[in-house]
C-alpha cells in the first residue's frame, strides 16, 4: 500500500469516526447506552453465538465452492471466513486485504492454491449475487415507503443511489473477474510465494468450478441464508432489548444498511456510515434513533468480542508458521 493509499485510508477512518461520534452525540449517548444495556450479558452472548452460526453458513458457502474438499473441512473454511471478516473490519486494511489473508488461512492448511483462489472468486461472486437478491427483497418490502410522500422521501435519493452504486460494483466484479483474479493473485504473491506463478492453474480451477452449477447454486444458497440470518440476528438483538419490530421490517432495514456498508467499502468497518444509516433509516420502520444506534453499538461490540480473539489466534498461527520456517 503506497503513501497516498495509506493517507486516504487514514483520512476515511478519521472522518468515519467523527461521523459516528457526532451521530451518537446528536441522538444522546446516554439514551443509546440505556437501551443497549437492556440486552444483558446473557443476551449479548446469545447474539455472539448466533453470529458464530452465521459464520458456519458463510464457511459452508466457501466450502461448496471448493469441489474436492470434504465436509469435515467445514470448520476450517468457517475459520478462514472469520479471519477474513475480522481483518477487514478491525485492521486498517482494505476489503481486499481481508480476502487475501483469509485465503492464506486455507493455503497454510495445505489446500492447493488454485482451489483456494478459484473457490474464493466463486464465493465472492455468489455472495455478491446473494446480497443483490437480498437488497432487492428489502427494496420490495419498503416500496410503499419509497413511492409515498412520507418521511422516506428525503432518503429516497440516497437509498436508490446507494443501491445503484452497489449494483454497478457487483456487475463490474462479475464482468471483470479475470482482472480481479489477477489483482488478488499479485497481492497474494506477497503472502504465498507460489501465488504469482499459479494464475493459469487458478483460471482452470475457476472454470472447473463454474462448470459444476449445482455447487455454485449451493454456494449462492448458503450465502443468501447467511444474509438472512444476519438480519434475523439484528431482530433478535432488538427483541432482547425489548424493542418491538417485525421480522420483515428488520430484514428490510438490514438489507438497506448492508447496501450502504458495501458502498462504503473503502472505510474500515464502514465506521460512521453504519451509525448514520441506522439513525436516519431506523425511524422509517418505527425504530427510534436511540434504539437503532443501540443495535449498531451491539454490533460493534460483537465485532470486537469475536474479531479480537480471532485476530490474536491468527497472529499466533502465523508466528508458528514462521517458527517452523
Q: What does it look like?
A:
This is Lysylphosphatidylglycerol synthase domain-containing protein. It holds the Pfam family LPG_synthase_TM. With 325 residues, the protein is mainly α. The protein has one domain (3-324). It is built from 14 helices and no strands. It has helices spanning 3-27, 29-36, 40-64, 74-90, 95-107, 113-141, 143-147, 153-175, 177-188, 199-211, 213-240, 247-263, 273-281, 289-324. Helix 2 (29-36) crosses helix 14, helix 3 (40-64) crosses helix 14 (289-324) and helix 5 (95-107) crosses helix 6. It is globular. The two termini are 26 Å apart. The model has no long low-confidence stretch (mean pLDDT 82).
The count of strands amounts to 0
Helix proportion = over 70%
Give the biggest beta sheet: none
Give helix and strand order, one letter per element, not per position.
HHHHHHHHHHHHHH
Strand content: under 5%
Estimate the mean pLDDT confidence: 82
Keywords: Cell membrane, Membrane, Transmembrane, Transmembrane helix
Main location: membrane
InterPro entries: L-PG_synthase/AglD
GO cellular component, one term: plasma membrane
Amino acid at each position: 500500500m503506497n503513501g497516498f493509499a495509506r493517507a486516504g485510508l487514514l483520512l476515511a477512518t478519521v472522518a468515519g469516526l467523527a461521523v459516528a461520534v457526532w451521530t451518537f452525540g446528536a441522538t444522546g449517548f446516554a439514551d443509546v447506552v440505556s437501551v443497549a444495556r437492556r440486552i444483558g450479558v446473557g443476551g449479548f452472548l446469545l447474539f455472539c453465538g448466533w453470529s458464530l452460526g452465521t459464520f458456519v453458513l458463510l464457511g459452508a458457502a466457501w466450502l461448496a465452492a471448493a469441489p474436492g474438499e470434504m465436509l469435515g473441512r467445514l470448520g476450517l473454511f468457517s475459520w478462514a471466513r472469520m479471519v477474513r471478516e475480522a481483518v477487514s473490519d478491525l485492521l486498517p486494511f482494505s476489503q481486499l486485504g481481508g480476502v487475501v489473508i483469509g485465503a492464506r488461512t486455507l493455503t497454510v492448511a495445505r489446500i492447493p492454491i488454485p482451489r483456494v483462489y478459484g473457490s474464493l472468486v466463486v464465493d465472492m461472486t455468489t455472495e455478491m449475487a446473494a446480497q443483490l437478491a437480498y437488497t432487492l427483497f428489502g427494496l420490495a418490502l419498503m416500496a410503499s415507503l419509497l413511492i409515498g410522500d412520507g418521511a422516506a422521501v428525503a432518503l429516497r435519493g440516497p437509498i436508490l443511489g446507494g443501491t445503484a452504486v452497489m449494483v454497478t460494483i457487483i456487475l463490474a466484479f462479475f464482468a471483470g473477474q479475470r482482472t480481479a483474479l489477477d489483482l488478488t493473485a499479485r497481492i497474494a504473491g506477497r503472502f504465498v510465494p507460489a501465488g504469482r506463478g499459479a494464475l493459469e492453474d487458478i483460471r482452470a480451477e475457476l472454470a472447473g468450478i463454474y462448470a459444476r452449477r449445482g455447487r455454485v447454486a449451493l454456494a449462492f444458497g448458503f450465502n443468501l441464508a447467511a444474509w438472512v440470518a444476519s438480519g434475523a440476528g439484528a431482530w433478535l438483538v432488538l427483541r432482547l432489548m425489548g424493542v418491538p419490530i417485525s421480522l420483515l421490517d428488520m430484514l428490510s432495514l438490514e438489507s438497506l444498511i448492508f447496501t450502504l456498508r458495501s458502498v462504503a467499502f473503502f472505510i474500515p468497518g464502514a465506521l460512521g456510515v453504519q451509525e448514520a444509516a441506522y439513525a436516519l433509516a431506523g425511524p422509517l420502520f418505527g425504530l427510534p434513533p436511540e434504539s437503532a444506534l443501540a443495535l449498531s453499538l451491539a454490533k460493534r461490540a460483537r465485532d470486537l468480542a469475536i474479531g479480537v480473539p480471532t485476530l490474536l489466534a491468527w497472529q499466533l498461527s502465523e508466528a508458528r508458521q514462521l517458527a517452523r520456517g
